Amino acid sequence: MLTTDEPGTVELLKGAGIIFSGRLIGRGLGFVSHFLFARILGPNPYGVFLLGLALFNFVTLLSDLGLRTGVLREAAAAEGRGDRDMVKGTILSGALLALGASVLGAVGLIVMRGWAVATFKAPDLAWLLPLFALALPFATVGLIFVSGLQALRRMKALSAIQYLCDPLFRIATFMVLILLGWRLFAAGASHLLASVAIAMLALLWLSSSFPLFTPPILTRFRLAPLLAFSLPLVMSNVVGFVLQWADSLFLGYYQTVWEVGIYGAAVRLAGLGGIFLMAVSTIFAPKIYALYGQGDLEEVGRLYQRSTRWVLICVMPLFFYTLLNAKTLLALFGPEFVRGSPALIILAAAYLVMTGTGPAGDVVLMTGRSKAILYTSAVSGVLGLGLNIYLIPRFGLIGAASATGLAIALGNVANVLIAWWFTGLQPYTKAIAKPILIALSVAGIHVALSPMVGEGSLPRLVGGAIIWLMYPVLLRGLGLEAEDLEVWKLMKASR
Predict the structure, then answer these.
(1) How many Cβ atoms sit within 10 Å of the Cβ of residue 356?
(2) pLDDT the model gives residue 1
(3) Domain encompassing residue 239
(4) Which of these, 38, 103, 238, 412, could form a disulfide with 357 (CB 3.0-4.6 Å)?
């Protein structure tokens, strides 16, 4: 039974209740924005936008210098010690370093536009990439400020800025520009305007809750430890980019921009399950950094196992629903997108493995062994690149999904093993068996009843959703432990 004498778990749940709600809304709104882009623009212009966004994200992660995670870890640890000057210095110095790097990155993004046009045979990238370059400094520094909010556990502010204001602003600006007659420009301009607005909002919110600009600003700050921890994570970020975007880039190179657009819709549908892991990880990471600093490894282990169980409970129905309705879901984007249904199924399975391994990477980073993440990420990235190069020319969309899916799955399994090696902690208990069996049972019922649901897209989707309402009912009656009920109460009370 979960009790209030386990303060780490209680705090995790209170924060996760806020972040889960924010992530759910934010991921939903983010999906809506890409759905609108794809539905209104069509596969070809949407594919061009995704290629530009991929190049933007690559330069962003290089400009980041790994400082998002470094600032989070160092500032959270300083906050745990009550050293507010160190917190202030860490956030500001991280932002200044990221700003300088991002300005250089913006210049590089403009310079590479000629190469991008020739490589992907997409002339619109010539004017789209400068729009992304203007957004780059704001986006990079804004992410540092968001890490500062997370380190200070300002979860309501973090949730409001990142998961509500950002996607809503993108949707609103996109639709206004569409009504004014713009198309692809509307997508690019909405990204630029949202990056500026969110950076300013994060800075204002951070300053209002923590006076960053009162002297002394940079006292109690050590640059070397921050960079020593952060810089190895650049390679990890590069691998994360490879796993997220290399498939789209190679599709654009070996196949067509049209296929990039179709694949982009499949990726965004498959990735919806990641909301649950990210929601828990957002509050899990700073909490275990503080607990590890206090030497409380036992509490870290409890949080690790509970987090993994809760994530799996939430992800499994979404996975099976996607698996059984792949074509129908993609048809919502337009009839051309149905071609991506095999890729959607493969990617959904990979994301199930990713979420099923829990926040293992956070446990490794907790110990300060960022180089272990670097090595694992490097292997995953090389594997992903190699498979993309080999499979995409031969199998197109299915090859891209298979390459990325395998790299994602193996990389996350490796993180579980590394976390166990360094700490002796592993994410699973016997209690996970009941929810898995219940999910499989409801999936079987879904398959059996699907011929009775109807042939149209809407009846199939609505009918399937109604069938899956059985899952929480059965889970409540057969699968939940006593502590799970307490978890639900705590998360509801925190919103």
Answers:
(1) 23
(2) 42
(3) 7-494
(4) 412
